[in-house]
Each structure stands twice: as structure tokens, then as C-alpha cells.
């Protein structure tokens, strides 16, 4: 015979070796999901909620570092911000990084 008994026994254990070699990749993906992907999704959801709730009178900080007060909500994608008295700019809503102080809701009779 040309095949030794030790070589013949090793050929049957290939399926189990494949699963054991795949296990580290699964563990690395699980760690990456819980440490990187999941927290990033939560931050994105919080930022979208913050941007959706912008109102006139809110003091905001843009991603460029400008601080201003929301003068007007133009549409779903833009807002008009007053940087100083008489200086108004239109910016994209997604560029709002932080809301420093929230304004009170406008009264219906006013």
C-alpha cells in the first residue's frame, strides 16, 4: 500500500479544521460591530434627530465652527442663520454640529 494510516486519518478531519479557522474571523467581525459600527449608527441617528428638530431661535454651532442663531427654516435641507446683527447666511442642515440652546416653541396666537 502506498497510503500510510496516519495520512488517511488526517484527511477526515478537514471539516472541523475549516470551522475552527473561520472562528477568528467571526469573532473579529463581532468585536468590530459592537465597538465601531453600532456606536457610529447611534451617533448618526442622534445627529439626524437633532437636525430634524431645529427651530427658529435655536443657537447652533456649525461644523465649520460658526456660532449663530437660526433665523428661518427654509426647507428640509436648508436653514437661514444669523451670525451677527444683519448678517444672515443659508447653510445646509446637515452642517449643524451642535445646538447650544433651544428656543421655546412659538405661541400660536403670536
From TrEMBL:
Cited InterPro entries: Preprotein_translocase_YajC (IPR003849)
Topology with respect to the bilayer: Single-pass membrane protein
Name recorded for this polypeptide: Sec translocon accessory complex subunit YajC
Subunit structure: Part of the SecDF-YidC-YajC translocase complex. The SecDF-YidC-YajC translocase forms a supercomplex with SecYEG, called the holo-translocon (HTL).
Role played: The SecYEG-SecDF-YajC-YidC holo-translocon (HTL) protein secretase/insertase is a supercomplex required for protein secretion, insertion of proteins into membranes, and assembly of membrane protein complexes. While the SecYEG complex is essential for assembly of a number of proteins and complexes, the SecDF-YajC-YidC subcomplex facilitates these functions.
Annotated PANTHER family: SEC TRANSLOCON ACCESSORY COMPLEX SUBUNIT YAJC (PTHR33909)
SMART domains linked to this entry: YajC
Record key words, sorted: Cell membrane, Membrane, Protein transport, Translocation, Transmembrane, Transmembrane helix, Transport
Chief localisation class: membrane
Annotated TM spans: 18-37
GO biological process, one term: protein transport
Amino acid at each position: 500500500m502506498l497510503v500510510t494510516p496516519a495520512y488517511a486519518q488526517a484527511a477526515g478531519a478537514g471539516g472541523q479544521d475549516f470551522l475552527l479557522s473561520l472562528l477568528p474571523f467571526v469573532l473579529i467581525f463581532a468585536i468590530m460591530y459592537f465597538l465601531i459600527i453600532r456606536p457610529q449608527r447611534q451617533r448618526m441617528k442622534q445627529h439626524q434627530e437633532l437636525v430634524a428638530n431645529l427651530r427658529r431661535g435655536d443657537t447652533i454651532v456649525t461644523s465649520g465652527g460658526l456660532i449663530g442663531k437660526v433665523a428661518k427654516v427654509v426647507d428640509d435641507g436648508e436653514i437661514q442663520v444669523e451670525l451677527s446683527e444683519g448678517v444672515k447666511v443659508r447653510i445646509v442642515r446637515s452642517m449643524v454640529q451642535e445646538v447650544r440652546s433651544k428656543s421655546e416653541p412659538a405661541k400660536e396666537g403670536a
